[in-house]
TrEMBL record:
<dbReference type="Pfam" id="PF08240">
    <property type="entry name" value="ADH_N"/>
</dbReference>
<dbReference type="Pfam" id="PF13602">
    <property type="entry name" value="ADH_zinc_N_2"/>
</dbReference>
<dbReference type="InterPro" id="IPR002364">
    <property type="entry name" value="Quin_OxRdtase/zeta-crystal_CS"/>
</dbReference>
<dbReference type="InterPro" id="IPR020843">
    <property type="entry name" value="ER"/>
</dbReference>
<dbReference type="InterPro" id="IPR050700">
    <property type="entry name" value="YIM1/Zinc_Alcohol_DH_Fams"/>
</dbReference>
<dbReference type="InterPro" id="IPR013154">
    <property type="entry name" value="ADH-like_N"/>
</dbReference>
<dbReference type="InterPro" id="IPR011032">
    <property type="entry name" value="GroES-like_sf"/>
</dbReference>
<dbReference type="InterPro" id="IPR036291">
    <property type="entry name" value="NAD(P)-bd_dom_sf"/>
</dbReference>
<feature type="domain" description="Enoyl reductase (ER)">
    <location>
        <begin position="10"/>
        <end position="301"/>
    </location>
</feature>
<keyword id="KW-0560">Oxidoreductase</keyword>
<protein>
    <submittedName>
        <fullName>NADP-dependent oxidoreductase</fullName>
    </submittedName>
</protein>
<dbReference type="GO" id="GO:0016491">
    <property type="term" value="F:oxidoreductase activity"/>
</dbReference>
<dbReference type="GO" id="GO:0008270">
    <property type="term" value="F:zinc ion binding"/>
</dbReference>
Length: 305
């Protein structure tokens, strides 16, 4: 089968389309025929060597596809069942087939195509775990989401609204209408406005940007509030000064979280936005675009029909 692998760290030119043996499932695992795989910042960060990995490595953490082979204990699934999954970092979904574990996959929502479904797992699970597990967001609370128009942010806005929160978000001017349509109650054009001057105190800051944006976020946090970052550990000293909590975390595959997100998708409360698709062989273009251009929502690779 074809798999996109890297044999050295570097720019998009290190991405190589390799012929590799098709994988086999163990026990309750299945082999998924990958229909679509989405691109996340972790893909280009891994390719560039920012994440420790043993080479060669197949990139891609998000897949949607159909069951091809069931392991001997995968009794609840059969060939052809549609699944979507966030893969553990020991495998890559930029390939024609991939092993998926029972702890990583959920039924693909009927409402979504494979391309749309592949946009959801990593970004959706990151949003879920950041808002609810680490952020403790509850109905009636106020959350500020930095980077609301990106892959994680556009799903986080919808998940927070579905949970009954007030959502403020920082975006570029061109994304204001987009995030309003997703349900954001207040938008801040981050290139022209300072969010700390216009957003009233919030219970939770969900930081998808880091740096100066994270530093300034303490000013909008209620005493006792929480700053959750996907990127860097918030200052413990500043957290203590505000009697607040600062958390950074790494999202982990979680079938139960993905199934919950799938139910919200089926109920029409959450819808992923796919800005562009590329064939698997053009993964280099897809990664370059995500890293260097303005992207709204997600970019997805079409792997097979
Ligand atoms: N810890 C984890 O497990 C985990 C999981 C997923 C993602 N992440 C990390 O979280 C970050 C976000 O992921 P993603 O998939 O959502 O990335 P993405 O799709 O590239 O989106 C990033 C968004 O941030 C916006 N942005 C950039 N600078 C900003 C600023 N100063 N203020 C407000 N918004 C700003 C961008 O908008 P413009 O284009 O308009 O600038 C873009 O919409 C990435 O760095 C990723 O590596 C970590």
């Amino acid at each position: 089968m074809k798999a996109i692998r890297i044999h050295a760290f570097g720019g998009p030119e290190v991405l190589s389309i390799d012929q590799v043996p098709s994988p086999q499932p163990l026990d309750d695992e299945v082999v998924l025929r990958v229909r679509a795989a989405s691109v996340n910042p972790i893909d280009y960060k891994t390719r560039e060597g920012s994440v420790s990995e043993t080479l060669p490595v197949t990139l891609g953490r998000d897949v949607s596809g159909t069951v091809e082979i069931c392991g001997t204990r995968a009794h609840t699934l059969k060939k052809g069942d549609p699944l979507f999954a966030m893969l553990g970092h020991d495998r890559g979904g930029n390939a024609e087939y991939v092993v998926v574990k029972a702890t990583e996959a959920a039924a693909k929502p009927d409402r979504l195509s494979h391309v749309e479904a592949a946009a959801v797992p990593l970004a959706g699970i990151t949003a879920w775990q950041g808002l609810f597990d680490h952020g403790g967001l509850k109905s009636g609370q106020r959350v500020l989401i930095h980077g609301g128009a990106g892959g994680v942010g556009h799903l986080a806005i919808q998940l927070a609204k579905a949970a009954g929160a007030f959502v403020a978000t920082t975006v570029s001017a061109e994304d204001v209408v987009f995030v309003r349509e997703l349900g954001a109650d207040q938008t801040v054009d981050y290139k022209n406005q300072r969010f700390e001057e216009v957003v009233d105190a919030v219970d939770l800051v969900f930081d998808l940007v880091a740096g100066d944006t994270q530093e300034r976020s303490w000013e909008v946090l209620k005493p006792g509030g929480t700053l959750v970052s996907t990127l860097s550990q918030p200052s413990q000293e500043k957290a203590n000064l505000r009697r607040a909590r600062g958390v950074s975390y790494l999202a982990e595959p979680n079938a139960a979280h993905l199934a919950e997100i799938g139910r919200l998708i089926e109920a029409g409360k959450v819808t992923p936005f796919v800005q562009a698709t590329y064939p698997l062989g053009e993964v280099a273009k897809a990664e370059e675009r995500l890293e260097n251009e303005h992207v709204r929502g997600k970019i997805v690779l079409e792997v097979s029909a």
